[in-house]
Hints:
The chain is built from two helices and two strands, in the order H-E-H-E. The chain is mainly α. The mean pLDDT is 81.
Amino acid sequence: MSVTGNVMIRAVRWYQCVFSAHRCAPCCRYYPSCSNYAIQAIRRFGACRGGLLSVLRLLRCRPWSNGGIDDVPQRFSVLYRFRWSKAHEEPRLKPLADDE
């Protein structure tokens, strides 16, 4: 893991401890939460590609989205949500086991 990746993960962990921990109840529409998704994406794909996937996830997290299980893709692609993409992955009904 690069120094940049470690810094990004520490920033997300700081957010989780300072801001997210003081909320009354969890309110993320997706599983895993956006911050946990970011950590998994950065660990799997590095700072640049994992950071890009994290930003795209934050853009998908809006009040009118359905939410649900949204794991980090197995292969990197920003288009993995589209059926016509070669990296397309169907949404899961059960989350993948953590690969940590």
